[in-house]
Specification:
Layout lengths: L5 H13 L3 H4 L3 E7 L13 E6 L9 E6 H12 L18 H11 L8 H13 L6
Antiparallel strand pairs: 1-2, 2-3
Helix pairs in contact: 3-4, 3-5, 4-5
Length: 137
Amino acid sequence: MKTKTLDEMFQESHDAIFASGAFSAYGWWLDLESMHMNTIDGMVPSYWGYRLTGEGPEEDDAPVSVEIWHTTLTGIMRRIADGDFGGEADLVPPTRCVGSKTAEECANFLAGRETDFDADTADQVLQALVYGGVVFG
């Protein structure tokens, strides 16, 4: 098996989540601002980043914004694959479990296997990153 270059890994992490359709499929994502996205030959640079803004998790909460980079994205994928997002009923707001398909896709991605992130699985990864669990949907 060919070892992936760093640029290939950055491209794959970007495409797995940001090409999934999650942002257009779900209304709780308010804004996706790109940072450092001067593409060369159609490839995203290894330093890609976004500022993602989502609705506040409770009705009267202010919107929530986070910066997402390759390392934060793969870090949350590792936590999901390890089962760290089983839902927390005592959190405010309460969170639901990240789905088993999402955990499987994260594990596959981290192991270098083929993945099939769709809008729902990518959305759950992003909600875990932004809200600490699945709040919407």
